[in-house]
Amino acid sequence: MFGRAGKFADRFGDEAYFAVLCIRSGMVGLDPPHRVAQLVRGFERFGLLGGAITAAALRHGDRNAVIDERGELTYKQLDERSNALANAWRHRGLEPGEGVAILARNHRGFLESVFAAAKCGARVILMNTSFAGPQLREVATREGTDLLVYDDEYAEILEGVEPPRGRWRAWIDDGGAPLGSLDALIAGASRAAPPKPGVGPRVTILTSGTTGTPKGAPRGEPRSLALLGGLLSKVPFRARETTELCAPMFHALGFAQALVGIGLGSTLVVRRRFSPEATVDSVARHRASAMVVVPVMLRRIVDLGEAAIAGHDTSSLRIIFVSGSALGADLAAQATRIFGPVIYNLYGSTEVAYATIATPEDLAADLRTVGKVVRGSVVKILGEDGAELPRGQSGRIFVGNLSQFEGYTGGGGKEAVRGLMSSGDVGHFDVHDRLFIDGRDDEMIVSGGENVFPAEVEDLLARHQAIQEAAAIGVDDEQFGQRLKAFVVLRAGENLSPDDVKRYVKENLASYKVPREVLFVDELPRNSTGKILKRELVQQH
Fold first, then answer.
1. At 407, is the secondary structure helix, strand, or coil?
2. Whole-number average pLDDT of the chain
3. CB contact at 8 A, 396 and 382
4. Is the pLDDT assigned to residue 165 strictly greater than 90?
5. N or C: where does the chain have the smaller number of CB atoms within 10 Å of the terminal CB?
6. The dihedral of CA 224, 228, 231, 236: what is its sign?
7. Could you tell me where the DSSP H helices lie in 318-393?
């Protein structure tokens, strides 16, 4: 009884703390009574996701919500256009609970579709733009697609996908508003609030598919402020600023940050394709206070060089928010040197949501850390027997919070122990409670009786001045049982031999961690969020 009461008190305390953070950030303000009533009605009618844009329109109506290649769109316009789109879809038979699949790059049509689907009480299925045709068709069928939204460039690979509520084009390459486009639907429909759907929307984000067919990771609407409050407890986002949103919005990072930006009344600057030059120019031109990127994007920005970046005034940038794959100590150091102490590195996943965030202070103490546990989450390091391990000892990482997914749509889920979910990684805490990732638990090899994680060797190779990036996989070895094989991308104009690489590793790490083979490649295979596709490297072996 006391334990249950204690947990309730902790939860109440967390929620109160998160509410204070939302107020301090400007996300929640002192609105007049009539507006408060309108805000409540909006959330009651459409839930948190659909109500978010309605609330933002009430509070920030004439402020720009999004700037894309087509220009500016205010919060009022985005709300009204999503109303019209929802009305058009409902008129064409879309029912609450049906699936709306969205295959679109970063532009206004993505946001219009998400909010319209939410106002219909639909299941929002975010499709990965880097998937091949067979993957897309398989996922569209498996996830139950009743209505499809897509950019023109994907028309050919989506042939054969004919959902009952139709196919609608979000981005028209030639411009205009032809039949079958979102713009045509919006132009012909009422912009009044659509009927109350009666059920809340659900969102399915697909896993990266780095080890096979991507899985759907669905979530209902949050029942806690933890997702927002945990973020705001570590990262100083503020209302009515400008965010350069580079990360793809179909991904958990980009989607979450788009919603945070909408909640804050910020202006989201987006482009359909990432360009490091355009991003740096845009940060300076729009005086962005935050930039959201995956590490490979940050690497491409840093590779522009300090002189090129210094030609743009990026002094407005208070936050570079990074997640999606390993940041790496070398990249963290270079980015900090160029932009200052503004790097915030999130560790989490599509399934477990937030676990830790490394602040600039954490990175100043140790560039390799992914930071301390976010309030509202629990992170434990467990041994093979399920027992919690002490600080400094490496083991499997398990995470618990109120924002985790509900199990894969195709069945199954992540391994769980005492209510905590496996992140799939191995790591350890230091004496200051900072988390370090030692590697993936499914990538560890045993070489000469010793456990070896490719991530340690990859991180070392990335620090070599001649190496742009590297990846390693385990291969069979007659003498050691297993050894590593390294795939190395050299910087332009640099030259190394395999023996040079092996010698460098031997000078810095134990001999059993030295790669058996070194293969030089032009680039590493990656998905759209920058994760290296090691299954493709295995196929090259």
1. coil
2. 90
3. yes
4. yes
5. N
6. negative
7. 329-339, 360-365
Confidence label for 9 from pLDDT (cuts 50, 70 and 90): low
**Contacts of residue 311, Cβ cutoff 8 Å, sequence gap at least 6:** none
Q: Using 50, 70 and 90 to split pLDDT, how confident is the model at 4? A: low
Nearest residue to 453 via CA among 437, 429, 468 = 437
What's the topology of domain 445-540?
GMP Synthetase; Chain A, domain 3 (3.30.300)
Strands 395-400 and 517-520: unpaired
Phi/psi for 170 (5° steps) reads -90, -40
Helical ranges in 26-132 per DSSP H: 33-60, 75-91, 108-119
Extents of the domains making up the chain: 31-62+73-221, 445-540
Backbone angles phi, psi at 466, to 5 degrees: -95, -10
Domains 31-62+73-221 and 445-540 share a fold: no
pTM above the 0.70 mark? yes
Q: Which class does domain 31-62+73-221 fall in?
A: alpha beta
Q: CB count, 10 Å around CB of 174? A: 6
- The C-alpha atoms of residue 85 and residue 177 are separated, in whole angstroms, by 14
List of residues 6+ apart from 14 with CB closer than 8 A: 226, 229, 375, 376
Nearest to 196 by CA among 34, 40, 47, 38: 47
